[in-house]
Amino acid sequence: MRILVVEDEDALADVISIKLGTQKYEVDTCFNGEDGLYNALTNVYDLIILDIMLPKVNGLEILKEIKEHDISAKVIMLTAKSELEDKLKGFDLGADDYVTKPFHIEELIARVNAQLRGIGKVKDILEYSDLSLNIRTSILTCKNTNETINIPYREFLLLEYFIKNKEQIISKEQIYDKVWGLESDYESNNLEAYLSFLRKKIKIIGSKVNIKAVRNLGYKMEG
Ligand code: CA
């Protein structure tokens, strides 16, 4: 699941993004309204966390644009205590929820989870062939052997992406985009190494699933 965070306070934006990342969400972060609006309109997100007071384009203007473009992402607004009027305007414009600053990060996470659960998008288990991946705990189970193994963050993102696109050829570019996203630095990401770690873990628990290299095209999960 993909979330866009639009917040101009760098430190707060980072805390939110990192915390959401540990919850297995894919996160893009924008530090001003213009970038936020551009991303909201050009990418597909399940949820957008939107600060109201933003440089260039404010949160309410972004919200209005999102709704006018029929973007279906859930929207949680971040507001200061003094912005009651803005808060009400936000609901008028179709915001799904709001959190008043200062807030505990856990509260925001709970509200994000609640919004995504509400639309049935939070699914705890992803399955393919004899594999079962718990996205809350990062535990991968082979249903035939009942063996389990913990999957570290980067490999988890890889595996999740492969399961969601099972039996399809996925290009390296698509993987970089999904797994490394905006922090993408092609040279330094050793995709082959991560894939090899992941293949080993799948093998260790006795699964028949394999991630095959498809010459010149990319990779494909089969099992
Ligand atoms: Ca702000």
Tags for this model:
Arc Repressor Mutant, subunit A, 2 domains, 12 strands, single chain, alpha/beta, binds calcium ion, 41% helix, 8 helices, 223 residues
Number of domains: 2
Listed once per kind, the bound small molecules are: calcium ion
Number of strands: 12
**Span from first to last CA?**
24 Å
Could you tell me the strand content as a percent range?
15-25%
What is the CATH domain class of the largest domain? Alpha Beta
CATH fold-level label of the largest domain: Rossmann fold
State the shape: elongated
Number of helices: 8
Indicate the topology.
Layout: E1 2-6, H1 10-22, E2 26-30, H2 33-42, E3 47-51, H3 59-68, E4 74-80, H4 84-93, E5 97-101, H5 105-118, E6 125-128, E7 131-134, E8 139-142, E9 148-150, H6 153-164, E10 169-170, H7 172-180, H8 191-204, E11 210-214, E12 218-222
The protein binds calcium ion.
What features would you describe in this structure?
It is a single chain. The protein is α/β, with parallel strands linked by helices and 223 residues long. The protein folds into 2 domains: 2-117, Response regulator (Rossmann fold); 125-222, Arc Repressor Mutant, subunit A, CATH 1.10.10.10. The chain is 41% helix and 24% strand. The chain contains 8 helices and 12 strands. The chain has helices at residues 10-22, 33-42, 59-68, 84-93, 105-118, 153-164, 172-180, 191-204, and strands at 2-6, 26-30, 47-51, 74-80, 97-101, 125-128, 131-134, 139-142, 148-150, 169-170, 210-214, 218-222. The strands form 3 sheets. A 5-stranded parallel sheet has the order 2-1-3-4-5, with helices on both faces. The chain has a 4-stranded antiparallel sheet with strand order 6-7-8-9, covered by helices on one side. Strand 8 and strand 9 form a beta hairpin. Helix 3 (59-68) packs parallel to helix 4 and helix 6 (153-164) crosses helix 7. The longest helix is centred in the middle third of the chain and has 14 residues, at 105-118. The protein is elongated, with a radius of gyration of 19 Å. It starts with a strand and ends with a strand. 26% of the residues are buried. The chain binds calcium ion. Calcium ion is lined by residues 8-9, 51, 53-54.
